[in-house]
TrEMBL record:
The lineage of its organism: Bacteria, Bacillati, Actinomycetota, Actinomycetes, Pseudonocardiales. It comes from Saccharopolyspora oryzae. Catalyzes the cleavage of L-kynurenine (L-Kyn) and L-3-hydroxykynurenine (L-3OHKyn) into anthranilic acid (AA) and 3-hydroxyanthranilic acid (3-OHAA), respectively. Pathway: Amino-acid degradation; L-kynurenine degradation; L-alanine and anthranilate from L-kynurenine: step 1/1; Cofactor biosynthesis; NAD(+) biosynthesis; quinolinate from L-kynurenine: step 2/3. Pfam families: KYNU_C. Keywords: Hydrolase, Pyridine nucleotide biosynthesis, Pyridoxal phosphate. Belongs to the kynureninase family. This is Kynureninase. Its EC number is 3.7.1.3. Its cofactor is pyridoxal 5'-phosphate.
Length: 411
């Protein structure tokens, strides 16, 4: 049956309108990787990224030196943020900045949000959300004397509209949820949840880390309050690339973030004795912008804009659908469980497969050139980056996984 799927993979690649983008990603000569299935953790580098960074170092940095700050670099957090908002977030200009790490921006936005709801004592969040989201909210709750109200979500899903409706109330200050669950890939109904939270007088902070660049986002249409996310997954920003933060313009005059660095000052070079926040979303900045680290992100946004987020989403649904089909045909009867929604409209761009001994599979998979992701205690994530992943590559990877399952069964 695997041969039949091989033919199907070839046909899907042939009809893929985005197939030309695969050649725009760097695959070094002599690479031992036969299937890279971890694009939801770290995207491949684009060929143009290496060229852009070399050119920047030799020309902009090399020739302009410190003059570059005054000429353009200080504006990059907002300039690149506006571009990100337009291409991937459905956010009008002036609401997105690129800075910090996801953890730091998550803290700054959440802390600002709860301060904007004085007298309310609860933060609502998902018991199965990404660890940082849970840890940061726990720290804020301790700092501010708040309670955490946990949503008991299913491991193969995420927060539902009904769960949020039951949880929020007059004491809810903030709802913090991931749009795509990091473990299961479950895609929540962000617009409906935002509306329900607002009806209770609460604010909402969306973590878009497993969303941005693979699933269309409409922050302004959702009437979202805040959002945060990383750029090293489907945006191919590279290891440790900076995060982004979104603050809806209606909150610009009301919220103040807690880390008062000099770049977030109204006049950074005044070096005055007291802090006065910069107007608008720039007030969310703290320290010196990570200019070099933004260069790969700019290239990633170029590629995403050229492809179009709707086309990317269409291929994402095809890729995850093919992965589910392969898993159900070849792996489910071998003791493997699908820990992701079967409905393509309810999942992001990765699926999770679970088996009790999958923790022992990662090393042999890597040895055979198949690179998925592992999440304890027993889940292998198949992360599918629509611009760089082919259907044949997906087929090769799951074929090797199937072979390893059979080898273990024969022992």
């Amino acid at each position: 049956m695997l041969d039949d799927f091989q033919e199907k993979a070839a046909a899907l690649d042939e009809s893929d309108p985005l197939r030309g983008f695969r050649d725009r990603f760097l695959v070094p000569d002599g690479s031992d990787v036969v299937a890279y299935l971890d694009g939801n953790s770290l995207g491949r580098p684009a060929v143009a990224t290496a060229e852009r960074m070399d050119r920047f170092i030799r020309q902009e940095w090399g020739h302009r030196l410190i003059r570059g700050w005054g000429e353009e670099w200080l504006d990059w957090p907002q300039v690149v943020g506006d571009r990100l908002g337009q291409v991937a977030l459905g956010a009008a200009a002036g609401q997105v900045v690129v800075a910090d790490s996801t953890s730091v921006l998550l803290y700054k936005l959440a802390r600002a949000a709860v301060s904007a709801r004085p007298g309310r004592g609860e933060i609502v969040l998902d018991v199965n959300d990404f660890p940082t989201d849970r840890y940061v909210m726990d720290g804020i709750a301790q700092e501010c004397g708040l309670e955490l109200r946990w949503l008991a979500t299913e491991p193969a899903a995420g927060a539902t509209v009904e769960q949020v409706a039951d949880a929020v109330g007059p004491d809810t200050a903030l709802v913090v949820l991931s749009h795509v669950n990091y473990r299961s890939g479950y895609l929540v109904d962000a617009e409906a949840i935002t509306r329900i939270a607002h009806e209770a007088g609460a604010l909402v902070l969306w973590d878009l880390s497993h969303t941005v660049g693979s699933v269309p986002v409409r922050l302004d249409e959702w009437n979202a309050d805040f959002a945060v996310g990383c750029t090293y997954k489907y945006l191919n920003g590279g290891p440790g690339s900076p995060a982004f933060g979104y603050v809806n313009q209606r909150h610009h005059d009301a919220v103040r973030q807690p880390i008062r660095g000099w770049i977030g000052h109204r006049d950074p070079f005044a070096m005055g004795p007291g802090y006065e926040a910069a107007p608008g979303v720039r007030g969310m900045l703290s320290g010196t912008p990570p200019i070099l680290a933004m260069l790969p992100l700019i290239t990633g946004l170029d590629l995403l804009e050229q492809a179009g987020i709707d086309a990317v989403r269409a291929k994402s649904e095809q890729l995850t659908g093919f992965a589910v089909e392969l898993a159900e045909a070849e792996l489910v009867d071998r003791g493997v469980e699908l820990l992701s929604p079967r409905d393509p409209k309810r999942r992001g761009s990765h699926i999770t497969l679970r088996r009790h001994d999958f923790g022992e599979f990662i090393a042999p998979l890597w040895e055979r050139g198949v690179i998925p992701d592992f999440r304890t205690p027993d889940g292998i994530r198949i992360g599918l980056a629509p611009l760089s992943t082919s259907f044949a590559e997906l087929h090769r990877g799951l074929s090797v996984l199937t072979e390893l399952v059979d080898e273990r069964s024969e022992r």
